[in-house]
Amino acid sequence: ELLPLVDYWKDRFLRFQDLFQEIEGDILGSFRRLEEESRLEIISSAATHGFLPLLGREESIRLQLAVGASEHRRLFGRAPKGCWAPECAYRPGGLWDPIPGVSKSATRPGLEEFLSEAGFRFFFIDTHMAEAGEALGWSGDVPHGTERFDASFQGETRTGDREASRSAYQAYHVGDPTVGKGLVAYVREPKASMQVWSRQQGYPGDGSYLEFHKIRWPSGLKYWSVTGSGVDLGGKEAYDPQKARRRASDHATHFSGFLGHIQRREGVGPSGVAMAPFDTELFGHWWFEGVDFLRELFTRLPFREGVIPVTASEHLDSFPPQVAIEPIEGSWGANGDFSMWLNPSTRWTWERLWPLEDMFWESAPRAMETEETRTILAHAAR
Fold it and tell me: Which residues is 82 bridged to in the sheet?
């Protein structure tokens, strides 16, 4: 029963090989052409995915963002307008002392100042950071380091007094909007995000889809379906690609309707926006059929009244924000805070990293004096 799947994988890889040769191996150039055709918008991030709120030096934050922006210009021929802050993490200005007695307590600017300084117009925050409510959907007992794809949804986000809560369906100014064009934050929409993201409550856990965790050794290929959420790996059934494709099509139909339902229920007007961000590895990796889902979804949206795909820059140009906020500290990780990256198991790394940051930046001016030491400094920076 697994033999047909051998041919399935062979045909798939040969198609990919043909496509790769057709674009002459230039994957980035292919994306660049799609952006030039206004099919998508490519934004930037920090150079090495540095967790910006916990970096000990302002220079380190500036370098992460400056390199991210400059590499984007080099690769895509234009300056990025948006930034994905690693792990959707943000901290406002104020007292910074994450490990009292170890970190150097200081009053520091909020991350919006560094993002604006690097030339970005917008970035993204999680729902609870705008609403100052509970963290979106990550179970409090998720082990540190657990993939967010495996996290579970706890239900509705608590908003408290509706008059005091802030809508997840609009963009906000962060910081002083009178400085330049101001920095804008888009807020993650909780319901649509979880529908696509969660293996427990969302589409990826459907029994028809390819099981990620069961792998044939030594080929590394996968021949089994999810089958069911409580099914042991030994009980997984053979994967049926056609059945899975049909299921992805069903889910795309449901999701387009789900967006329309949100638009009507929440009373989202023409200026409203539902921003649903995902790690790219969800599509095709964690959720193998996720790429099929995206293709099917975008064939359905033109027929869904009131739901229009839009890039962040297009939305920002058409509907400049009218409200300024100061988000609370947070991320899209477990518990909505920084605890996935600073906890008893990882504390020792920060105790080493902060002194190393200080040593690097204190040594940098002298290291710039000769070509030999500049080379060493460049290696150290990387």
Answer: 122
* Residues annotated as part of the active site: 87, 279
Mean pLDDT (whole number) for 5-19: 97
Name residues whose C-beta falls within 8 Å of residue 153's C-beta, 6 or more positions apart in sequence: 137, 194, 198, 200, 201, 202
**pTM score above 0.85:** yes
Q: How many C-beta atoms lie closer than 10 Å to residue 79's C-beta? A: 14
The phi, psi pair for 74, rounded to 5°, reads -65, -40
**239 pairs with which residues across the strands?**
none
Residue 273 vs residues 21, 161, 293, 316: alpha-carbon distances, Å: 38, 22, 21, 10
Q: Are 114 and 67 in contact (CB under 8 A)?
A: no
Q: What share of the chain is helix, strand, coil (3-state, %, to 5)?
A: 45, 10, 45
Q: What is the DSSP string of 55-105?
A: -S-HHHHHHHHHHHHHHHHHHHSS--SBEE-GGG-B--SEEE-SSTTTS--
Token pair 């795309």 in the structure block, residue: 252
pLDDT-based confidence at residue 306 (cuts at 50, 70, 90): confident
What does the DSSP assignment read for 270-338?
TT---B----GGGBTTTBTTHHHHHHHHHHHGGGSTT-----HHHHHHHS----EE-PPSB-SSGGGSS
Judged on CB neighbours under 10 Å (0-12, 13-18, 19+), 330 is: buried
Count CB neighbours of 223 within 10 A: 22
> What per-residue confidence (pLDDT) applies to 168?
87
